[in-house]
Write a structure and sequence with these properties.
This protein has 15 helices and 36 strands. By secondary structure, it is α/β, with parallel strands linked by helices. Among the domains are: 163 residues, Alpha-Beta Horseshoe (Leucine-rich repeat, LRR (right-handed beta-alpha superhelix)); 102 residues, Toll/interleukin-1 receptor homology (TIR) domain (Rossmann fold, 3-Layer(aba) Sandwich), CATH 3.40.50; 42 residues, no CATH class. The strands form seven sheets. It has a 23-stranded mixed sheet, with helices on one face. A three-stranded parallel sheet has the order 35-34-36. It is elongated and about 160 Å long. Bound molecules: 2-acetamido-2-deoxy-beta-D-glucopyranose (12 copies). One 2-acetamido-2-deoxy-beta-D-glucopyranose (NAG) binds next to loops. One 2-acetamido-2-deoxy-beta-D-glucopyranose binds next to loops. It is a single-pass type I membrane protein. Belongs to the Toll-like receptor family. Keywords: Glycoprotein, Immunity, Inflammatory response, Innate immunity, Leucine-rich repeat, Membrane, Receptor, Repeat, Signal, Transmembrane, Transmembrane helix. It is found in: Membrane.
C-alpha cells in the first residue's frame, strides 16, 4: 500500500513536471503571443541553437547572438520552417546536412557572419529556398556543387565578400536557373589577382533569367562585349562605383532594360551607339562621371526615357539635342556641371519636362528665350552669371505651371528686375533666392501669392521691410540663413501668422527679443545656429524660453555659443545662468517692496505720533508757497495781525484787546468772528489758513476754553509741538518762526508793560525777537 501510493505520487510528480527542454528554451526564446509558430531568440547571448524549440515552428530568428557553429542536429525535423534568420552571429562553420530537413524553407538570412567558404553539402535540402542573404561574410571560395540544391533560388545577395577566383561566380549561377535578383556589391572580383577587373563573356552566361543585377564597387574596368548578352529579361542594371571609362557595349540591344545606372565611374564621353535599341529605358543615371560632351545622336533611340541624370560631370554646353531627341523627358538633372550658356530654344519642344536642374558650378548665361517651351515645368533650378546687373532684364520666365524656383547668382546681386522674373508665376509655392539681395520694390511677391516656402540666403546684410511679406500670407517656411542680419524687427509687422519653420542660421543676431515670437503664433521650428549670441541678462528671456517652451523646437540650441561678453566667449549659451538675472530683478523687487513697506510703516508711525508736526510742516510749506506767490504778485499784507481766540473770550478781546491795539496802538487786526465773510467762513481750517496768510502776525488769545476748542487747539498744537512755547508770532514769509509768550494774568498789575510788550512783538519786523527778552516769559 505504502509503496503503491509512493510510486503513484512519483508518477504524478513526473507528469506535473514540464519537459525540461521546453523549460530550457523558454529561458532564451519567446513564442509569439498570437502565432505560436513564430519563435524569437534574438539578442539572448546564445552560443548554440537552443534545444526544445517546437518542431512545428514556421518562423525562427536567432539573430545577434554568439553562435559559432550550426550543428547537423540543430534543425532536425523542422519541416515546417519557412523563414530562418541567423544574421549577426559569429557563424564560421555549417556542418554538412544541417539544413537537410528544411524542405519548406523560403528565406535564409546569414548576413553579418564569419563564413569563409561555401561547401558542397552546405545547402543540401533547401529545395524550396527563394531568398538567400550571404552579404557581409568573408567568403573566399564557393565549391562547384554548393548551389546545386537551390533550384528555386530567385534572389541572392552575396555583397561584401572576398571572392578570390572570379570563376567561382559560375558555381553560383550555373545552378540557379530561377535566379532573378543578384547583388554582387563589393564582391571583389579579381581583387587578389593582377588587376583583371573584367567580367568576361562566360562568367554570367547562365544568368539568363536575371531581372536585377547589381555590380557596384567591384573595381571593374571592363565588361566584355557579350558578358550580359544572355540576360534578355534584365530590367535594372546598376554598375556604380567602378572604373568603367565607356558605356559597356554589351548593353546595346538589351531592349528589356528599364533602369540603368553608371554613377561614379570614369566615363569620358557618350557615343551615338551607347544606348542603341534601348527602347524600354525610362531612367539613366550617369552622375559623377567625366562626361564633357555628347552628340545629338546619343539619345535617339530613347523614346521612352523619362529621367536623365547627369549631375557632377564636365558638361559646358547643351544644344538642341535634348529637346529634339527626348521629347518625353520629365526629369532632367544636369546640376553641378559648368554650363556656360543656355541658348534660345534649348528646351523648346519639351512640354513634358516637369523637373529641370541647371544649377552650375560656374554661373550660366541664360539667353533670351533659353527657357521657352517648358510649359509643364514645375521645378526649376538655375545659376546666373552676374553681368553688370542687366542679367535679369531679358529673363521673363513665362512658366505658368512652375511651383518651385531656385535661382543662384555668382556674386551678390541687386535684382531690380526680380519683379519681371516672378511675373506670372501664380502657382509658385517654393522660392529660393541665393545671393539675390535687394528685395526691392517691396511688392515683388505680389505676383506669387501662393508661396509657402521662401529662402533668401547669402546676402551681405539684408534688412527686409515687413511689407515685403504682406502678399504671402500662406508662408510656412522661411529660410534667411547667411545674411548678416542684425535684428528681426521686420518680423513683428510681417503678418506671418502661418509660419511654422524659421531658419536664421549664420546671421549676426546677438539678442533675441520675445516680441518677435509673439508675432509668429504658428511657429514650431526655429534654427539660430551660428549666431554671435550675447550671454548676459538681455538674452535671459530667450534662454529660458528655449529650454522651457513647449511649442517651438529650437534646433541645436545646446550647441549655440556665446560671442560676448569676453568672459563668456566660447561658452554654451544655454549654460548661462539666467537664475542670476531673475535673482537680481528679484533683489530689486525686494528692495522696492521693502522700501514701500518701510515708507508705509514710517508714515503711519509718523501720522500716529507726529501728526501735528506734519500738519504744521504742511502748513508752513503752504504758507511759504502762498507767501512767495504773494511776493511775486506784490500783494501787501491786509492785516497786521490775525487774532485767534475762542468765542468765550470774545468779551475780553472786544473790551481789552481791541481798544488797546486798534484804537490806542493803531494796528489793523483780523478777528475771525468779525472779519470773515459768511461764505468763506465755513471750513475752519481753510479760512483760518487764508486769514493767517493775509496777516503779518498771528496773535493767540489762550485760555482754557481756547485749548479745548477743536480748531483752536489744533492751531495751538501746531505751534506747541514744534516750538514748546506758545506761539504768538508766526511769520509765513519765512520758515523761521518767532514767538513771544506774554501772560495776561501775570501782567494784571502792569497792564501798560503788557501792552507795550504786545506792541513790540507786533512791531518788530522780520527780525527774530530775542527770546531772552526779560519781558517775555517761558511757559
Ligand atoms: C515551397 O514554398 C511555397 C511557397 O513559396 C509553398 O507553397 C510550398 O508548400 C513549399 N513547398 C514545400 C515542399 O514545403
Ligand atoms: C579559378 O577557378 C578555376 C575553376 O574552378 C580554376 O581552373 C582556376 O585555376 C582558378 N584560378 C585560380 C587563380 O585559383
Ligand atoms: C592596377 O590597378 C591600379 C589601380 O587601378 C592601377 O593604378 C595600375 O596601373 C593597375 N596595374 C595594371 C598592371 O594594370
Ligand atoms: C527595378 O526597376 C523597377 C522599375 O523601374 C523598380 O520598380 C524596382 O524597384 C527596381 N528593382 C530594384 C531591385 O531596384
Ligand atoms: C542590335 O540589334 C540590331 C538589330 O536590331 C543588330 O543589327 C545589331 O547587330 C545588334 N547589335 C548587337 C551589338 O548585338
Ligand atoms: C538634382 O541634383 C541635385 C544636385 O546634385 C540634387 O540635390 C537633386 O536632388 C537632384 N534632383 C533630383 C530631382 O533628383
Ligand atoms: C519642335 O517640334 C516640332 C515638331 O513637333 C518641330 O517642327 C520643331 O522644329 C521643333 N522645334 C525645335 C526648336 O526643336
Ligand atoms: C537654409 O538655407 C541654407 C543656405 O542655403 C541651407 O544650407 C540650409 O540647408 C537651408 N535650411 C533648410 C532647413 O532649408
Ligand atoms: C494678416 O494675415 C491674415 C491672414 O493670415 C489676413 O487675414 C490679414 O488681413 C493680414 N493683415 C494684414 C495687416 O495684412
Ligand atoms: C524688443 O523689441 C521691441 C520692439 O522692437 C522693443 O520695443 C523692445 O525694447 C525690445 N526689447 C529688448 C529687450 O530689446
Ligand atoms: C520661463 O519660460 C516658461 C515657459 O515659456 C515660462 O512659463 C516662465 O514664466 C519663464 N520664466 C521666467 C522667469 O520668465
Ligand atoms: C543554449 C543557450 O545558449 N542558452 C543560454 C540561455 O541564456 C543564458 C543567459 O541568458 C545563457 O547563459 C545560456 O547559455
Amino acid at each position: 500500500m505504502w509503496s503503491a501510493s509512493a510510486s503513484l505520487l512519483s508518477l504524478l510528480f513526473l507528469l506535473l513536471l514540464p519537459q525540461p527542454s521546453l523549460l530550457y528554451s523558454l529561458r532564451n526564446c519567446t513564442r509569439d503571443f498570437h502565432d505560436s509558430s513564430e519563435v524569437f531568440c534574438d539578442s539572448s547571448e546564445l552560443t548554440t541553437i537552443p534545444q526544445g524549440i517546437p518542431k512545428t515552428v514556421t518562423y525562427l530568428t536567432a539573430a545577434a547572438n554568439h553562435i559559432v557553429t550550426i550543428r547537423e542536429s540543430d534543425f532536425n525535423g523542422f519541416t515546417k520552417l519557412e523563414t530562418l534568420v541567423l544574421a549577426k552571429n559569429y557563424i564560421k562553420h555549417i556542418e554538412n546536412g544541417a539544413f537537410s530537413d528544411l524542405f519548406a524553407l523560403n528565406k535564409l538570412n546569414l548576413m553579418h557572419n564569419k563564413l569563409t567558404k561555401l561547401t558542397d553539402n552546405m545547402f543540401e535540402g533547401l529545395t524550396n529556398l527563394t531568398v538567400l542573404v550571404l552579404k557581409n561574410n568573408k567568403i573566399k571560395s564557393i565549391s562547384p556543387l554548393c548551389f546545386k540544391p537551390l533550384g528555386k533560388l530567385q534572389k541572392l545577395d552575396m555583397s561584401f565578400n572576398m571572392l578570390v577566383n572570379n570563376s567561382d561566380v559560375v558555381n553560383i549561377v550555373s545552378h540557379c536557373p530561377s535566379l532573378k535578383v543578384l547583388d554582387l556589391i563589393k564582391f571583389r572580383f579579381g581583387v587578389f589577382r593582377k588587376n583583371i577587373s573584367v567580367i568576361g563573356d562566360t562568367l554570367l552566361q547562365s544568368c539568363s533569367r536575371l531581372t536585377d543585377l547589381k555590380l557596384t564597387q567591384n573595381a571593374l574596368t571592363e565588361l566584355s562585349e557579350s558578358s550580359l548578352r544572355t540576360m534578355t529579361r534584365l530590367t535594372n542594371l546598376s554598375i556604380e562605383s567602378n572604373r568603367l571609362s565607356i558605356i559597356p557595349p554589351t548593353i546595346r540591344n538589351m531592349s528589356s532594360l528599364i533602369q540603368l545606372s553608371f554613377d561614379s565611374n570614369q566615363i569620358l564621353k557618350l557615343q551615338c551607339s551607347d544606348f542603341l535599341n534601348l527602347q524600354s529605358l525610362r531612367k539613366i543615371s550617369l552622375n559623377y562621371n567625366r562626361i564633357s560632351t555628347f552628340k545629338s545622336c546619343v539619345f535617339q533611340d530613347l523614346q521612352n526615357l523619362r529621367e536623365l541624370y547627369l549631375e557632377n560631370n564636365f558638361i559646358s554646353q547643351l544644344d538642341g539635342t535634348i529637346s529634339n531627341s527626348l521629347p518625353n523627358l520629365a526629369v532632367f538633372n544636369v546640376s553641378e556641371n559648368h554650363l556656360r550658356s543656355i541658348e534660345k530654344h534649348t528646351f523648346f519642344n519639351m512640354s513634358h519636362l516637369t523637373v529641370l536642374n541647371l544649377k552650375s558650378k560656374s554661373a550660366t548665361e541664360i539667353q533670351s528665350g533659353g527657357l521657352e517651351g517648358l510649359v509643364g515645368l514645375k521645378r526649376l533650378t538655375f545659376s546666373l552669371n552676374y553681368h553688370s546687373g542687366s542679367v535679369f532684364e531679358g529673363l521673363t520666365l513665362h512658366l505658368e505651371a512652375l511651383q518651385e524656383l531656385t535661382i543662384q547668382v555668382d556674386k551678390s546681386a541687386c535684382v531690380y528686375h526680380a519683379l519681371y522674373i516672378l511675373h506670372g508665376l501664380k502657382k509658385l509655392r517654393v522660392l529660393s533666392l541665393d545671393t539675390i539681395c535687394c528685395l526691392t520694390p517691396s511688392n515683388i511677391f505680389g505676383e506669387t501669392p501662393n508661396l509657402i516656402n521662401l529662402q533668401i540666403t547669402n546676402c551681405v546684410e539684408i534688412s527686409p521691410k515687413p511689407e515685403l511679406f504682406h502678399p504671402i500670407t500662406d508662408l510656412h517656411i522661411l529660410n534667411l540663413s547667411h545674411n548678416k542680419m542684425k535684428n528681426l524687427d521686420f518680423l513683428i509687422k510681417a503678418n506671418l501668422t502661418k509660419l511654422e519653420k524659421l531658419i536664421l542660421a549664420n546671421n549676426d543676431l546677438a539678442v533675441i527679443n520675445e516680441t518677435v515670437f509673439e508675432a509668429l503664433p504658428s511657429l514650431k521650428y526655429l534654427d539660430l545656429s551660428g549666431n554671435p549670441f550675447v550671454c548676459d541678462c538681455s538674452n535671459a528671456w530667450f534662454i529660458n524660453w528655449t529650454i522651457r517652451n513647449k511649442q517651438v523646437q529650437v534646433v541645436n540650441a545646446y550647441q549655440y555659443r556665446c560671442s560676448s561678453p569676453p568672459t563668456e566667449e566660447g561658452h554654451f549659451l544655454l549654460d548661462f545662468n539666467v537664475q542670476l538675472c531673475w535673482e537680481f530683478t528679484g533683489f530689486l523687487c525686494f528692495i522696492s517692496t521693502s522700501a514701500l513697506v518701510l515708507v508705509t510703516l514710517l508714515s503711519s508711525f509718523t501720522y500716529h505720533f507726529l501728526r501735528w508736526q506734519l500738519v504744521y510742516g504742511f502748513y508752513l510749506l503752504l504758507a511759504f508757497l502762498y507767501d512767495s506767490k504773494k511776493k511775486r504778485q506784490g500783494c501787501p499784507d491786509i492785516y497786521d495781525a490775525f487774532v485767534s481766540y475762542n468765542v468765550h473770550d470774545e468779551d475780553w478781546v472786544y473790551k481789552e484787546l481791541l481798544p488797546e491795539l486798534e484804537e490806542v496802538q493803531g494796528w489793523r487786526l483780523c478777528l475771525h468772528h468779525r472779519d470773515f465773510q459768511p461764505g468763506t467762513a465755513a471750513p475752519h481750517s481753510q479760512f483760518h489758513q487764508n486769514a493767517i496768510y493775509s496777516s503779518r502776525k498771528t496773535l493767540c488769545v489762550i485760555s482754557r476754553r481756547y485749548l479745548q476748542s477743536e480748531w483752536c487747539s489744533r492751531e495751538i498744537q501746531m505751534a506747541r509741538y514744534g516750538l514748546t512755547q506758545v506761539q504768538s508770532r508766526f511769520s509765513p514769509g519765512s520758515v523761521q518762526v518767532y514767538r513771544t509768550y506774554l501772560s495776561w494774568t501775570q501782567a494784571q498789575s502792569h497792564k501798560g508793560l503788557f501792552w507795550e510788550n504786545v506792541r513790540r512783538a507786533l512791531e518788530c519786523g522780520n527780525e527774530p525777537t530775542d527770546n531772552h527778552n526779560p519781558l517775555t516769559a517761558n511757559v
